[in-house]
Specification:
- The complex is a heterodimer.
- By secondary structure, chain A is mainly alpha-helical.
- Helix content of chain A is 66%, strand content 0%.
- In chain A, helix 3 crosses helix 7.
- Chain B is globular, with a radius of gyration of 24 Å.
- In chain B, the strands form 3 sheets. In chain B, strands 4-5-6-10-9-8-7 form a 7-stranded antiparallel β-sheet, sandwiched between helices.
- In chain B, a hairpin with a 5-residue loop joins strand 9 and strand 10.
- In chain B, helix 10 packs antiparallel against helix 14.
- Classes of the chains: A mainly alpha, B alpha+beta.
- The interface between A and B is large, with 90 and 87 residues.
Chain lengths: 176, 360
């Protein structure tokens, strides 16, 4: 039930935050492995969803450092996800890469607040539960993240010939 | 470019625009099968989080779980609730103009590495979110911005390891204190000072710098200062004794407060600039009204419930939020909440939307 209900959300979250599809598959596998092992004490209702986001965040966070891949579970998911991501990234626009590069230059918490707001469509109070702070701090960080992204990208993005140079791919994430 | 435009661009840059996984149903089921065939035993050897208040403590539970999942990994400690400093005055006299600082401000100063930029023209333009061992100050000079964030010393290793992903640490020294620097670009760096006492500080050249030399000059101009000097460099309305009382009066000027509202709670909000203080104060008032509404609802007191609904439905008329709207999006958030009240949203949903628990 929990798995079926939140699988898509966890896969989306992971795919958005790691560089390689097999890493995303590992994150999803680990998230639900933790949930399985903690099934007796999982929070109820919508809190479970936020709890899973929190678990996913920690796993991504640690995966970036450890660079160790656990190859026991989710072999098929890794394979199919790799195919999909290859299709999705074939049409990377310069604007998209510019925005992703600008996101990568935010502090991790600011970036996480912004992307949880826009990509995962979470409310400040929900983000606060995921990242372990209070809703006001989330709002402050959200405001700061938008301002910094605006400064970083500039007002000319989207007009041909006026975009900043970007690296051909995601900048490694800061980690926090 | 406004906030909406920024959001639109980030949305368009979503690396995972397709939310469906129907085409991967077989892989999804295969993984589920693998997981449930994984033994749950062996887990009990690790510390577990008691299920008490599991929802409110979800993040703490997550940290414990992740650490248990892979021993040796460093979890992300939860920020502790701000510690209230005694609401009395403290005189700090550095031999110059005599200023009486708020005790809360002195408390923060004493626990803080107290760094300033020893170069004319820099001003602290944003102070917030700290009362004890974490917080943030933004300094500005023209277009340049420098942020100094404080964190509990216990999180130093976690932050250090995280920054390693940026591209490697370079040893640095800030006014005699060992530090390490990571570089996002020639003009955008983050410098972590090694912990001093209960905190460590990270300096980020937020924007406006013109290359590596400019950044180096800035870092070379940062100095440790004493309590008096540090406090004098912060906005007077933040640190001066009596500033809180004035701020309280300003915020509450046209805001109805719920029955029994303890105004003195606002004295214990830590050191904040006007925006942060306004947000914290409004939050206390709104949560007070929600508490009152819940109480009235349980007691069948329709008059009191109507009063609470009326107060929360009138948030758009609160002047402090109009003033704050120029600086951030807190006001928009509160106005959206008030609109929900006026639209007849259920009390249960409103309570969930605001999330007024102690952990929030």
């Amino acid at each position: 039930m929990l798995y079926a209900e939140h699988f898509d959300a966890m896969l989306a979250y992971a795919t958005r935050r790691v560089d390689q599809p097999h890493d995303a598959a590992d994150v999803v596998a680990d998230v639900f492995l933790v949930a399985w092992r903690r099934v007796d004490t999982l929070p109820a209702g919508d809190d479970a969803r936020l709890w899973l986001y929190g678990v996913a965040r920690k796993i991504v966070f640690n995966q970036r450092r450890s660079r160790q891949r656990r190859d026991r579970l989710g072999v098929r998911l890794r394979s199919e996800l790799a195919d999909r991501v290859e299709r999705d990234t074939a049409d990377e626009s310069l604007q998209r890469l510019t925005v992703q590069a600008a996101l990568a230059c935010l502090g991790e918490v600011d970036r996480e607040v912004l992307t949880l707001t826009i990509w995962e469509e979470l409310e400040p109070r929900e983000i606060a539960a995921v990242i372990g702070t209070n809703a006001q701090a989330v709002r402050t960080r959200l405001s700061r993240a938008r301002a910094r992204l605006r400064d970083s990208i500039g007002n000319d993005l989207g007009r041909a010939g006026h975009v900043r140079a970007v690296r051909p791919g995601l900048i490694p994430e800061e980690g926090r | 470019m406004n906030d909406h435009d920024v959001d639109q661009m980030v949305r368009a840059a979503d690396p995972y625009p397709d939310h469906g996984t129907d085409d991967m149903s077989a892989a999804r089921e295969e993984l589920a099968d693998e997981i449930v065939r994984t033994p749950r035993t062996g887990w009990s050897a690790h510390p577990v989080v008691r299920p008490v208040q599991i929802a409110a403590l979800a993040v703490a539970a997550v940290a414990a779980l992740v650490m248990a999942l892979a021993p040796g990994m460093v979890g992300d400690a939860d920020p502790q609730p701000p510690r209230a400093a005694p609401a009395t005055s403290v005189v700090v006299d550095g031999g110059r103009d005599r200023i009486v600082f708020a005790a809360a401000a002195v408390d923060v100063a004493e626990k803080n590495p107290r760094l300033l930029i020893d170069e004319p023209g820099w001003q602290a333009v944003s102070v917030g979110g700290f009362a004890g061992d974490s917080g943030s100050i933004t300094f500005a000079k023209g277009e340049r911005r420098v942020e100094m964030d404080w964190y509990p010393a216990g999180l130093y290793k976690t932050y250090y390891d995280d920054r390693s992903d940026v591209g490697g640490h370079v040893p640095a020294t800030i006014d005699g204190t060992a530090a390490s620097m990571v570089r996002y670009s020639a003009s955008d760096v983050a410098v972590m000072l090694e912990p001093e006492g209960s905190t460590f500080v990270e300096i980020r050249t937020a924007r406006g710098f013109d290359g590596a030399d400019d950044v180096s000059r800035l870092l070379g101009a940062i100095r440790h200062v004493d309590v008096d000097t540090w406090l004098r460099a912060l906005p007077r309305q933040v640190v001066r004794f009596g500033a809180t009382e004035q701020a309280v009066d300003r915020v509450l000027a046209d805001i109805p407060t719920p029955p029994g509202f303890d105004v003195t709670q606002l004295d214990r909000l830590g050191v904040n600039d006007r925006y942060q203080f306004g947000a914290e104060a409004v939050n206390l008032v709104v949560c007070g009204w929600l508490d009152e509404w819940q109480r009235a609802d349980r007691a069948g007191d329709e008059t009191a419930a109507a009063s609470a609904r009326k107060a929360l439905g009138g948030i758009r008329g609160w002047k402090v939020l109009t003033d704050m709207a120029r600086e951030g999006d807190y006001s928009d958030d509160m106005w959206a909440f008030s609109d929900k009240v006026n639209a007849g949203e259920s009390l249960e949903h409103l309570v969930a939307f605001r999330s007024c628990s102690a952990d929030d």
